[in-house]
Design goal:
Helix content is 26%, strand content 23%. The strands form four sheets. Strands 1, 8, 9, 10, 11, 12, 13, 14, 15, 16, 17, 18 and 19 form a 13-stranded mixed β-sheet that branches. Strands 4-5-7-6 form a four-stranded antiparallel β-sheet, with helices on one face. The protein folds into three domains: 148 residues, D-Maltodextrin-Binding Protein, domain 2; 109 residues, Dipeptide-binding Protein, domain 1 (Alpha-Beta Complex); 232 residues, Dipeptide-binding Protein, domain 3 (Roll), CATH 3.10.105.10. The N terminus is likely disordered. The protein contains 14 helices and 21 strands. It is of the alpha+beta class.
């Protein structure tokens, strides 16, 4: 489909969704080989090494990872079809699959892998870079055209999982490849099942099938992904037939969509957590006030008893049932209970407002205090309502809480500048190690730790346990260390509150169906015709 045709098609879809045309007036496309989908979020950059965030997952359709990933987050062959630890765990060999090619027909080699790994740490200006996944690497050795050996200073058990995040680019793109080159569509070589045909930030991504893709052939030759950030408009476009599939179903519409005989609704338990993080760094935090509304020079969020009180004041089950309509499960750990490295002893923080009030009094705040919780209003299902619910629970124990919400595009840059005292957001990861290192660990720019720790919360005791885990090659011992770290950081010290694990839900017009991914990715290659 040419750009002019695609623009006409999305314009027609916008008018139909706005005008509420009857279902029968919007017939399915006569082009059975073109997927028309509505997605909530636009990629913030077309550079697959720029920002680790949910809206960037769509780029997995354009750029293959060194190691692939199953819908439930397990490693599988990608550009590499085999790997093994060597040198007592201080190095890993990855073998590039025979016959792997880029979209221009050139062979993918170990040199391309080394080039891609070397590029990641050069990326600047990102609010959530991929540096964490290459931080352990001390040297990359190209042993032959198909074998790359990745060296680390110490035994490193997470290399395979790390490589599920690293997109493989062609070395022919050159040493001076910039993020701006991707955004300007100067990059014309891809390693994924699709290639980029056209893109406009906040509007659409148009792709076509990669003729040299080495994996399973996608069902659709063309994929036109229209960005429809408003939930109601996205659902309306699906029901009207303007798009054939959508992601991130709004919670309130799920029962109705499930009953619609014309739709296939699919879901998966997400490896993601809704959390609340608090400023433990500053003595005077910008959005913390005393009970009379005056600024405080003593930050109560530094006190573990205060943090425990705030956690106990939140009725997580009520949020899941009443705000999320059951499309989530209460959280105790960073990832759903039972995930390797989570703690079975931790348990969901009990809802106990009376004990919460006692802890506040013990900490020296019998009359409570005031604070503001910041949240997004367009990023996650019911994100603003969840923040409002948490504020009400805290207000009931004497911590009068205001809510300020803002669009995703403004929220995360502000959070990265440590603008907030308390923030509510979501974070997803393939395993507990990733989640801890990025979200919970004490911020350490030089070591690439705490990259998503935007409130500078900290638990040195738990960090020490994680440091041991990162070099422990025995899986059982490693998971025990990670579980104990969760007991300390989330349980005993309550430096960050886990609220719930959301489900990811998709809908498609029959006979199409969407294979759901644990990280919420909407991938055109995961949409099947029947």
């Amino acid at each position: 489909m040419k750009r002019s045709e695609f623009l006409r098609s999305i314009a027609a879809g916008t008018l139909a969704a706005a005008g509420g045309l009857p279902h029968v007036a919007r017939a399915q496309s006569t082009d059975a080989d073109t997927l028309r989908a509505g997605i909530k979020l636009s990629p913030t950059s077309m550079d697959p090494h720029f920002r680790l965030s949910g809206e960037q997952n769509v780029l997995r359709a354009l750029h293959a990872r060194l190691v692939g990933m199953t819908p439930d987050g397990k490693p599988e062959p990608g550009v590499a079809d085999a790997w093994q630890p060597v040198e007592d765990g201080r190095a890993w060999d990855f073998r590039v699959r025979d016959g792997a090619k880029f979209s221009d027909g050139s062979a993918i080699t170990a040199d391309d892998v080394a080039y891609s790994l070397a590029r990641v740490p050069t990326i600047t200006g990102s609010a959530g870079a991929y540096h964490i996944f290459v931080r352990a690497i001390t040297r990359t050795e190209v042993r032959d055209a198909r074998t790359v050996r990745i060296h680390t200073a110490n035994p490193y058990p997470f290399m395979v999982e790390d490589m599920t995040e690293i997109a493989v680019l062609s070395k022919a793109l050159g040493p001076d490849l910039k993020t701006a080159d991707f955004n300007a569509q100067k990059v014309k070589v891809f390693s994924g099942p699709y290639t980029l045909e056209d893109y406009r930030f906040g509007e659409f991504v148009a792709m076509k099938r990669n003729p040299h893709w080495f994996g399973a052939k996608p069902d659709f030759a063309q994929a036109n992904l229209k960005v429809i950030p408003t939930d109601s408009s996205r659902v309306a476009a699906l029901l009207a037939g303007d798009v054939q599939a959508i992601d991130e179903l709004p919670v309130a519409d799920v029962p109705r969509l499930r009953r619609d005989a014309a739709l296939n609704v699919t879901q998966i338990a997400g490896m993601r957590v809704m959390y609340v993080a608090m400023d433990m760094d500053r003595d005077a935090s910008p959005f913390v006030r005393d009970s009379n509304g005056q600024p405080m020079t003593r930050n109560p969020l530094k006190d573990a008893k205060v943090r425990q009180a705030l956690s106990m004041a939140i009725n997580r089950q009520a949020i899941v049932e009443r705000v999320m309509d059951g499309t989530a499960t209460v959280a105790s750990n960073l990832l759903p209970e039972g995930t390797p490295g989570t703690s079975s002893a931790l348990g969901v923080t009990p809802f106990d407002p009376d004990k919460a009030k006692r802890l506040l009094a013990e900490a020296g705040y019998p009359n409570g205090f005031q604070l503001t919780i910041h949240a997004t209003n367009d990023r996650y299902p019911n994100d603003e309502k969840v923040a409002q619910a948490i504020a009400q629970f805290w207000t009931r124990i004497g911590v009068r809480t205001d809510v300020v919400t803002m669009p995703n595009a403004a929220y995360f840059p502000a959070a990265a500048r440590q603008t907030f005292s308390v923030m509510a957001a979501q974070y997803g990861a393939d395993n507990v190690s990733y989640a801890y290192r990025a979200l919970v660990h004490t911020f350490d720019r030089d070591r690439g730790l705490g990259t998503a720790n935007r409130t500078r919360h900290s638990s040195p005791r738990a960090d020490a346990l994680v440091a041991q885990a990162l070099t422990e090659m025995d899986e059982a011992k490693r998971n025990a260390l990670l579980a104990r770290a969760a007991d300390v950081a989330i349980g005993e010290e309550a430096i960050i509150h886990m609220i719930y694990h959301p489900a990811y839900l998709y809908a498609a017009r029959k006979p199409l169906s969407v294979t759901p991914y644990y990280n919420g990715a909407f991938l055109p290659q995961a949409v099947k015709k029947g």
